[in-house]
Amino acid sequence: MRIAVPTERAPGERRVALVPEIVAKFVKDGHTVAVERGAGNDAFYSDAAYAAAGAQVVDGDELYHGAEIVTRVAKPSDAEVDLIPRGATLIGFLSPLGDPRSVERYADHGLSAIAMELIPRTTLAQAMDALSSQASIAGYKAVLLAAAALPKYFPMLTTAAGTVKPARALIIGAGVAGLQAIGTARRLGAQVTGYDARAAVKEQVQSLGAKFLEIAGVEATGQGGYARELTAEEIAIQRAAMVKAIGASDVVVTTAAVPGRKAPVLVTAEAIAAMEAGSVIVDLAAETGGNSELTVAGKTVVSPNGVSIIGAVNLPATVPTHASQLYARNVQALITYLVRDGKLTLDPDDEIARGATIVRDGEIVHEPTRAALAAT
Ligand code: NAD
User: Fold this and answer.
1) 347 and 270 share one domain
2) 47 catalytic residue (yes or no)
3) Number of neighbours of residue 157 by Cβ within 10 angstroms
4) Which protein residue's CA is at the shortest distance from atom 11 of ligand 1?
């Protein structure tokens, strides 16, 4: 098959969908890979490295010529969609519910489309799980941002000038990003507490050497290992308990999300007011509304009492070399799984193909997207 890899053009997006290591694997399997000139520049993969891996490095519109698969990180612009040949399959973080109209355009163009964020979180699909590979990077980088912004050390240090106490870090939401944040904060020497509305993650938090914050009366395990939305009563209990825990922390990293919903507000203005001046909050849920009441996506806000609230946006793009490498491996695992007899096959009876396909041969097959379009 002919696989095209365009340059990502969204502001701040430094990742690339395939890296030379994976191009070489596709070429070895008999596929042709066309890479837009400069596509890997921001992630430090050179055109020469792609060419050495067997890719055709091409300019502009030539990229899409005869393309059967277009692999991307973020969704394409309308102009880019116009260039993709009918019958081709688009693969990327296509954010169908964030922009249902874009899905309609793929259908109008007679494309098929696979949203990486909809790949089922099953054991079989683990190697394709781009949400996890990228969330883990976000969790790591969030702690580095916090450490850089904090006017204190993270580790406890015993020096000739006396002892410095370790920073106290609270990680809220112990999913993929949160667990990586806990591990990273521990490695930097902070005293770490983890919290999640799913009590099942308590042991995972503790196994990383962190304490688990228990809030009685809140247990929100929902479908598929995700959290469900909390009731009004649970939210009240949680917020009240959080004021004390947040007030006692130098660093708070929030990662709490409920799929398909606005992020829950867990860090209230009251809790921020209870923190010491100079403390730092990094909100990984900034793009879906924020876990803190004062978060502004893409900005750092300083509260009246001197707490910095960092509204982190697309952190994986700030670690572009490894983020691209892991994403490319996820995409390769997916394509290899879906290719049958040399053709990409979006079999509705296959759990992974069914879960992630949003458009099949020009028809929108993702029910939530259809509902969102019907509602507009
Ligand atoms: P996510 O990004 O949807 O949410 C992050 C965390 O926020 C979750 O742990 C969630 O429980 C928590 N949260 C939501 N609302 C909250 C609230 N009000 N208060 C406190 N915490 C709240 O989740 P994710 O990181 O994508 O992963 C979710 C689950 O899926 C995890 O259990 C993870 O281990 C599991 N998972 C399984 C596989 C697999 O089996 N292949 C792969 C990836 C993830």
Assistant:
1) no
2) no
3) 13
4) 227
Q: Tell me whether residue 86 is in a domain.
A: yes
Residue 333 sits in the same domain as residue 307: no
Distance CA(214)–CA(218), nearest Å, equals 9
**pLDDT, tens only, 132-184:** 999 999 999 999 999 999 999 999 999 999 999 999 999 999 999 999 999 99
Is residue 372 domain-resident? Answer: no
| Beta-bridge partner residues of 344 | 339
Q: Residue 102: what pLDDT?
A: 97
List, as one string, the DSSP characters of 235-298. Answer: HHHHHHHHHHHHHT-SEEEE----TTSPPP--B-HHHHHTSPTT-EEEETTGGGT-SBTT--TT
Asked whether residue 9 falls in the same domain as residue 100, the answer is yes
Distance of alpha carbon 111 from alpha carbon 363, whole angstroms: 8
- Assessment of whether the complete model's pTM goes beyond 0.85: yes
Among 2, 105, 121, 354, the active-site one is: 121
Q: Of the listed 14, 106, 129, 360, which one is catalytic? A: 129
Q: Are residues 199 and 233 in the same domain?
A: yes
Ligand 1 binding pocket, CB closer than 6 Å: 121-123, 126, 129, 131-132, 135, 172-178, 196-198, 225-227, 230, 255-259, 264, 266
| pLDDT (tens digit per residue) in 36-52 | 999 999 999 999 999 99
CATH number of the domain where residue 112 is located: 3.40.50.720
Q: Is residue 373 part of a domain?
A: no
Q: Within a domain: residue 141?
A: yes
Domain count, the chain: 2
Q: Read off the amino acid at residue 63.
A: L
Element (H, E) at 132: helix 130-149
